[in-house]
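Fold it.
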Amino acid sequence: MNLARAASATPTLKHYIWSTLPNGGRISGGKYIVPHFEAKNRVDSYIKADANLYAKTTFLWITFYVSNYLYPMFTPNFLKSSGKYIQLSPAAASTPFHTIGSTRANVGTFVTAILRAPEISLKKFVLAKAETLSAGDLLAAWSRATGHAANYVKVSLDEFDKVWPVWGREMGLMLEFWDDAKDESWSGESIIGAEELGVDVGSLVGVEEAFREVDWAAVL
């Protein structure tokens, strides 16, 4: 809110880019209220209610970060009995994950494209993604990149939350929402993507390459 207020109060500002997320509560009919989505959605509404600020704003949806795998609830864990790494999740392995791939390499590409094309990006929601993989295929890409065999194991949201209290429910709700809404989980607004912005998706750093950039020996 403070960022939006400052942007609104800056008359020389020509283009404001706000990094936000889809309205999961509205998309799911109130079934999934994901806190970190909801917080950003309130700012979305604030910006839209300020006509002058809204007129010079682009809303940026940055999809799943490969670097999210560095958070404990996403990092595969080694299981001695199987000799494999295990990833727990309340989402099915078939759940589609839109992903930005490497945030370091790819986010700036979308931001630059937005700023170069205000005539099509203002008052729009930009879906920034490098590729779409299932949750299981995402783990398989991690396995290839690291050389570690891995299995995907679906658990309930309550079980996920017991392993990683608080954070497990926060991220688990997001994963359940994606599992339920599938491709519709990134919808509900006036959306433009790489094609409209002239972004060459083939030039973006994909998931597997982004995984290879991480020093996993220091993480696992």
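The two ends are 37 Å apart (CA to CA).
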